[in-house]
Amino acid sequence: MSGNLHLLSLTPPGWGGVLLAGLFASLQLAVGGYLLGLVIGIGGAFGKLYGGPILRDLLEVYTTVIRAVPELVLILLLYYAGTDLINQLLALVGSPSVDISGLAAGIFVIGVVQGAYATEVLRGAIRAIPSGQVEAARAYGMSAVLALRRVTLPAMLPYAIPGLANLWMIATKDTALLAVVGFSELTLATRQAAGSTKAYMTFYLAAGVLYLMVTLVSNVIIALIERRARRGMPQTV
Amino acid sequence: MSEGLSGLPLYVPPKPRSLLEPHRLLLMAVFAGIILCAILFMRWDWLPTYGPRLLYGVWQTLVMLFWTASIGFLLAVPIGLVQVTGPRPLAWLARIFCTIIRGTPLLLQLWLLYYGLGSVFAQYPELRSSFLWPTLRQAWPYGFTALMISFAAYEGEVMRGAFAGVPRGELEAARAFGMSRWTAFRRIWLPRALHRALPTLAGETVLQLKSTPLVATITVIDVYAVISKVRQDTYLTYEPLLLLALIYLCLTAVLVVVFRYLESRIPTREA
User: Fold this and answer.
1) B47-265, what's its fold?
2) In CATH, what class is A26-187?
3) Which of A98, A122, B135, B155 could make an SS bond with A45 (beta carbons 3.0 to 4.6 A apart)?
């Protein structure tokens, strides 16, 4: 196995460059999907807390279904359905069908899945804010949007960060599932490299190390963000 | 004294949520319409042909879930325990194990075991001629191991928190009653930790159910693999996947109900 290390070199006889390109694609997917999930989550959380009865029930159905069905199945469904839907819409307005890039479709899929979890995390965090703070903002005459931007979102952050950090970890690992629909991210790149060189152990271990590095670096950054968000909160244990 | 100064009640409890509110009836009608359209206008003629195989797939998924979760949980108890009370090197080992397994995707671990370890095993002629080979040549031992290890790592982290969360006074009381360390563990520490971990255990088991379809990527036959076969044979995209989503929804619902029943069996003082 140690004799296979030259296979990991960055230049073409080695597959290191392919792996790093895969890692870059994975990170793009994770960041894009995570941000989309956050936007959906903020909308969903406010819809669940302040929306009308129909909106609330629809959001409940969305979060329940997404959280009960395996990510792999959702990815297959949304990947095909999403690209199909866009092409049918384009056909309706008469423009020719387009090839939707795997990256855009992948970000959409991960975003929709993350959105359901983010909705629940953010809803809990918003409910944890002492209600006097939001009421005070409204009493000062801030509009709903201004109160959201200046008070609700910053005040919920310390409560939301552990859950959101968890979601980021899930997002980085869920990108691996897109290997099943043929998107060339780190796991699929690894499988191709391993298949063509027969050095399975070397490449899978190398990919494992790359994923682990992402996790460990993320942990350090999250700890920094959490310390900053919690400044001014009473110290716990 | 529920009357306020102006004669209004001080607190109006919110109306209990009911399934029969008008907007819900409307929504249910809409959903029923969608489902009816799906039944009428999509192709379901493949169902009778693949029905028995689907049932077999569901059974395989459940068997896989039950055994990986059970054995994984048995491994998780010592993993959690040594992190709370074990000697330093063992605690470090358990921590490193949890970090590595939780820090890498399950799909990668699965492929590492199946393709990587499988290719290493194949290099040893002694192993190939041994009685273990007929088993090791199949895919399910690798899928089973990967799922079990993954459950042990995630649940080990949960059990660590549960063991650490049992109030010290209860353990000291057990020791003061003259229980040996083992008896105190068996009678007090473990049951109390299990009680605390049960709600999280329910969530982890649902997550484990949602991880089982990954083993289909290494040719293990579960319900997901059967649906993939249907998709290949019939060239249908949506119908099999929608049915699969429905099956998993039902399985999740069953799991949630089972765990709720288990939780209700544990007596609590508040109740």
Assistant:
1) MetI-like fold (1.10.3720)
2) mainly alpha
3) A122
